[in-house]
């Protein structure tokens, strides 16, 4: 902890600047519960599960949220407009150190009557306000990124069978039961992400990887982007899906994938689906604060910007 004193002091100043950035734009800071009754359905995330008791001894299954997204969207559906949150999030089965910690700080914000291009501008302005990095970001379509670093036209590989063949051509050994996303990331994580030196906003992910984003005018791609700084993923953003029927269908598919992967399976949060049905046009983003501080300070390990990382708590 003593060795991290300078980094933790700088971290505190960065957090202050983050809040000032949003206050100056009249965003409302909101607090969401860390304890929830149902987690999200993301196939590759593992929520922390525990039992909680009320004063009469009645026991409930509970989870520490993996992000405040569901709650914040419920707030947007109830009439809140531009909002942000800086909160602790929790994920089980994460690495201890490197760029991961099971307890981490998330900055999440939403703009009403906006799309993901406006969130891109927010990202560039925010980095400029906290780290003097204005005009350093390169915005690039995922298709162009694959052409540049993998030498292929992604338009030709938007189906699972074709992506499977491409993985074989590139020397990987995928199994037949891998999802499109698994296959996509075999190439992306090994051939593309390590080459993302500098500041990148990578936008328009394949529709199969839309998550909670709406599809673009070219429905083969979703209005989703991620922020990379020197090969480290910092943030994930969407033009938010506002079609409850489509949202429910995606959650059902994610639940099936969790079951296929042998992960714990949870009920769908129907209150969230109902909220999506009345969600205004909006866009939002989740940004990892610890990773942001890490890259701003040039630290190789996330442990260097935390008071007591898991690697120290559980050593």
UniProtKB/TrEMBL annotation:
GO MF, one term, reads:
tRNA binding
Tell me which UniProt keywords the record has, alphabetically.
ATP-binding, Ligase, Nucleotide-binding
Q: Which GO terms describe its cellular component?
A: cytosol
Q: What is this protein called?
A: EF-P lysine aminoacylase GenX
Superkingdom to which the source organism belongs: Bacteria
What's a GO biological-process term for it? lysyl-tRNA aminoacylation
- Which part of the chain is the Aminoacyl-transfer RNA synthetases class-II family profile domain? 11-309
Keyword ATP-binding in record: yes
Q: Name one Pfam family in it.
A: tRNA-synt_2
Q: Which organism is it from?
A: Candidatus Magasanikbacteria bacterium RIFCSPHIGHO2_01_FULL_33_34
